[in-house]
Amino acid sequence: MIAALALLAGLVAGILLEPTVPVALQPYLPIAVVAALDAVFGGIRAKLDGVFDDKQFVISFVSTGNRGVAASRVSVGTTSTSCPRSSPPSRPSWAQDARLLGTA
Predict the structure, then answer these.
(1) For the whole model, what pTM was predicted?
(2) Are 50 and 39 in contact (CB under 8 A)?
(3) Rounded to 5 degrees, what angle do the CA atoms 11, 69, 71 make?
(4) What is the DSSP track for 41-87?
(5) What span, in angstroms and rounded, lies between the C-alpha atoms of 35 and 49?
(6) Distance, CA of 58 to CA of 53 (rounded, Å)
(7) Rounded to a whole number, what is the distance in angstroms from the first to the last CA of the chain?
(8) Are 76 and 28 a contacting pair, CB within 8 Å?
(9) Most buried of 28, 45, 51, 101 (most Cβ within 10 A)?
(10) What is the C-alpha separation between 1 and 19, in angstroms, rounded?
(11) In this predicted model, which residue has the larger pLDDT, 17 or 24?
């Protein structure tokens, strides 16, 4: 019952406050969502197995582990200049295509 009330309170707060994520942090948002889902589903599995420990759940929810590695990869990917974006190669005109095919 407490979990349902907390979910409802979170939904209402999200709708009323309309939180925004700064542009610089947006690449990290999917990592945070997946990390939260990982902790929640890990907790559900532990509860079903009968070995749920609330302290371990909280630690898994806030620990860095693989999330730190994933966040660093995103950071490197967004700040990397080793592979500059270039425009796609220009397409030859229809006349050049026809000459290449031998039809002109």
Answers:
(1) 0.53
(2) no
(3) 45
(4) HHHHHHHHHT---HHHHHHHHH--HHHHHHHHHHHHHHH--SS---P
(5) 21
(6) 9
(7) 77
(8) no
(9) 28
(10) 26
(11) 17
Distance, CA of 66 to CA of 62 (rounded, Å): 12
**Encoding tokens for residue 9?**
């309170």
The answer to whether 43 touches 52, Cβ cutoff 8 Å, is yes
pLDDT digits (tens, 9 = 90+) for 41-96: 888 999 999 998 888 888 877 775 666 767 777 777 666 555 555 555 555 555 55
Contact 95, 104 (CB under 8 A): yes
| Amino acid of residue 72 | S
For residue 78, the one-letter residue type is T
* Token duo for residue 103: 């039809």
Residue 34: pLDDT over 70 = yes
Find where tokens 């939260």 sit: 36
